[in-house]
Please model this.
Amino acid sequence: MSSLLETPSDRLLAAVRQLLTAKGVVTREEIAERIRTTDNASPAQGARMVARAWVDAAYRARMLADGAKAAEELGIPMRGMPPLGVLEDTAGEHNVVVCTLCSCYPRAVLGYPPFWFKSAAYRARAVRDPRGLLLEFGTALPAWVKLRVVDSTADYRWMVLPLRPAGTEGWSEERLAAIVREGDMIGVTFPKLP
Amino acid sequence: MSTQTPVPDPSTLPEARPRAMHDMGGVSKFMCDAVDVEPHALDEFDREVDAIRGLLGAKKVMSVDELRRGIEAIPEGDYLRLSYYQRWIRSITDNMLAKGVFTEAELRAALEDTK
Amino acid sequence: MSALFPAGTSVRVRDDWPETRGACHIRTPHYLRGVRGVVEKHLGAFANPEDLAFARPAAVLNLYHVRFSPQAIWPDAQGDALVVELYETWLEAA
Model:
């Protein structure tokens, strides 16, 4: 292994960028375009899916059966993306997602993974102390709710379909989507009324 | 952590088997670490590294599996010290050298050029 | 690709440690080696990342969601179920 790998990262990036563009592997325009496209993916996408599932039982069923197809129904680009698994919360069981080996994340529907999701503390604690972990996010799970932790080790990417909070009866999909946050779709928090 | 169950001796746990250092699930030394829940926005460096990896994948030059392998090869001290995308650029460079996309000599020259 | 282990099958993760035999890329967490679980679902078939990671030809393998009890792994574990994606080559009937 080359000792050049120990060069400070910002210098590595500059050199790699120069070499890859000089050799025609990528162009600067492609890099800029890719950054722009990736910035378009955000938790708002996943939130729209959750809101639709809350008001439309048939959509919910389709989402649970094939998350990627359900995302595409709402115009979220999924071509070339890994399969999307949707974990349905019930009154008696709550799901939490982790990738202990690296940080596999449903980027197509949630955007870039948050800093905490990639941290050693999260990756280590989620599988062994999920209740303690949730407390770090201010989430105190009632003792009678079962906690189901899903470790993303392979080809699927997972998102949580949280329970619809009380007090939202009659709300429009748009209003519902607005209260669904990134952490709610990973399972570290629950959607709450503003 | 539960106050009723005594903390087990790590030498009796799966982490004492010959695991790779990145294989962190349940590992005792991290269990008392607080989680930094602050948002930490990505900077330009992060976004560009991410974009280059995505393009290398889309163009079938380097797969996500190869990226992960390269990250897992980083010595533990560096792995824990480097940020997420700092690990990525190191793995990308490692893979590009291994695949002969560019040579060490070319890399050295480019590092000089971009100083 | 027909699945070897239907939903509900008891399985054990092989107590194997390729990490001791040289460079490898393994997606079976250390904490599951030798542990018994129950198959929840066949998730489909995908190319083996252990080979993709080294740009080697990769066999397409069945992938399963398998449920474990965290207390069977760590005596002090919280949580009620731990569900992990595992490739067929890592599982044996238990």
About this structure: DSSP finds one helix and five strands in chain C. Chain C has one domain: 10-93. The beta strands of chain C are 10-13, 36-47, 60-68, 81-87, 91-93.
